[in-house]
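Notes continue from the previous slide.

Worked example: a multi-chain complex. Inputs as given:
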Amino acid sequence: MTQSSTTPLLMVRDVSKSFGAVAAVQGVSFPLYAGEAHALLGENGAGKSTLVKILAGVHGADGGALLMDGEPVVFKGPAASRAAGVSVIYQEPTLFPDLSVAENIFMGRHPLGVGRRIDRAGMNREATAVFTRLGVQLDPERVARGLSVADQQIVEIAKALSFNARVLVMDEPTAALTNVEVERLFEVIRTLRAQGAAVLFISHRLEEAFASCQRVTIMRDGRSIRTAPIEDVTIDDIIRSMVGRDLDALFPKTVTEPGEVVLDVADLCRGGVFDDISFQVRRGEIVALAGLVGAGRTEVARAVFGIDRRTSGTVRVNGAELPNGQPLAAMNAGVALVPEDRRQQGLVMDMSIDQNVALASLGRLSRFGLIRRSSERELATTWASRLQLKFSRMGNTVSTLSGGNQQKVVLGKWLARNPSLLIIDEPTRGIDVGTKAEVHRILDRLVAQGLAVLMISSELPEVLGMADRVLVLREGRITAEFTRAEADEDSLMRAATGQSPEVAA
Amino acid sequence: MSVITAPAPAPTDRPASRMESLLRARELGIALAILVVFGLTTLNNHAFAQVASIQQLLNGAALIALLGVGETLVIITRNVDLSVGSVVGLSAYIVGDLFKHHHGMPVLLGIVIAIAVGATIGAVNGLVTTVARVPSLVVTLAMLYIVRGVDGVIVHGTTIDPASIPTAFTAVGYQTLFGIPWLALIVAVVVAAAGYAMRSFRSSRDLYAIGSNPDAAALAGIPSGRRVFTAFLISGALAGLAGALFLALHAQIDVSGGSGYELTVIAAVVVGGVAIFGGSGTVLGAALGAVLLNTINQALVASRVSSFWNGAIAGALLLAAIAFDRWLSLRVTRSLRSAEGAHRDL
């Protein structure tokens, strides 16, 4: 907080933006000072992403002004915003799958050699230098296709860092990162601040905002509600300002008595990925698979569901063994899988809400092979109201929904099949606090009604808050199992990283 | 702070270098296929390896390879140019007609006019595609018919015969330098220059970015409209040049000149490893694809196989190329996925 009395580096003043009749951002104002990290908080749909796109020059504001160093600026496009020193990390990675990692970072501003030719060696060197600063090892020459979501995010961060931007806007940079990577990112943010840059930090993890930011601006319904030094607010204050009402506990948990075994996995093995995995999930309980990204959690789920073939071992659902590598058989046996990447794997983004909800139940909805639109709509309406889906029209494409509501559509799609086991991978990634609690409440209600849930989550509070039992995976093996009473943040992290209590300082 | 450090992957087994070698193998593979076809045919018919026959092979592939350069630029941006065949016909006829009515017109001027005709049509393609945002498949399909129609009106049933074309111009078609036909040399220079430019300049890398992920390209501040327009402009200009060279090679032109070239070119480009949905591929690969298709074509003739087989073989090759690409991309994705995690050092 070096120069809070001087002119802000970037002043957002009364900025408004409407799309048709919808006012996405209305009269938002806040200053960004050099050397500060500023948290921008709000539920999904509060207008944060629109504001980010205005700062990035993707959208032009309808009203209000942006001032850099006190001078009004107009960004005519992403290139203009970048030239003014604003660098943006978007929520969804925006990479070029066919190009190398280094080229992704330097696209449009490759280092040039003699005769304005691209200096490839120099480009790879610079990319490596940025990765070193971030403390990660990524081969700059490999193509971006096939990178995990976390690695894609790292490339995005590297891209933003390579600009040496004066204003760095991060829209949910940590959603896909492990704790260690997040810690490194914060270190980088500290360095940038020390160099006089301003960081606008958007996250749904409120603890992160407290850990790394000096001031906070809260948005609700497209307006800026409040800007304050972080010391002056509490998490409760923030949540109240964000949702405009008090939240029930974020993690509702009904105590249930687990029933008979639904999922029985024995000695499950997939060569080179995971080994010797055995566990059970009973009716009315949530079992969490915890561990670092890359520990094999998602892979275990995929093998259970039959997307990937298992090398050995058995998977039984309600006593009947599932054939290897047949997702359809798993579905018919009552298993549902809500994948990690809902945009790529969970939804058909260009299809309407009701068609997406009906997608997994088409067999039931069709007569003589023809799908009846009316029954599709009926099914979707039922689940939309049960899951409190917020939408304008059933016929709109899913891409028009916020992340939290998209997740509800995926949930509805699978719940419509009335499964006995729900496998859910990162149930609330990139979802705002309000909707997060709703998703948790939905899960809790389903479990109370006898559903068995296998949950994969990178968010420890979610694991601790929701799970009846926690299995910790490390390097493809189950290294620890905790009951709800035994589990705490410290013991889970130790099991996930392989540190024994004595060694750690 | 952490105690786990995954072993660093061996440098020889890096995914990137493997990927690159696979890509290089694609061009090498086509070159090998050309040699195999050539060798087998020669065993059967020794005349196939005669200098004149080889020259004919090169000349036959040259025009398709030249068109392939422009088509590659367009396809890399996730577009397509179906008008090139018609442009060849129109520009060839216009230049031929000029030679016929203006004796003593400089040869170079003829070539420049042909390029200008092609560039104009390319510019229209580019403008309608980028400004009006009509899919290029539709725009250039319409242009294929429009240009062919205009060609028909201008030609009006006549033919330009060899007598009306200056010999200095037709020399391009039959004279050689160190045994290599001038036509093939000109095309080789264009391919080499384009191939070099596609690797080395920012604006050409933009083309790959646009085809690989259009939304990300917009966010990266790439002037997509301008770049796509330029790709169409170059494709049109090269088609115009190909028209002039068509006239020089055949020394005559009627209304059907260049008909059906567009599909042959796209086949050559795809066989040459350019992804039909944009984002990857090289000009050199496309040119080699053209040579391979033409070599097979000529080999069938030399082996006295019915020319009806020609189309069927080109089609089978196309399917094989696409199946190979699909298989390759799945394999690469999978190998990169499994190699990942190895590099994550916690």
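Summary box: Chain A touches chain B through 50 residues (CB under 8 Å). Residues 294 and 475 of chain A are 7 Å apart (CA to CA).
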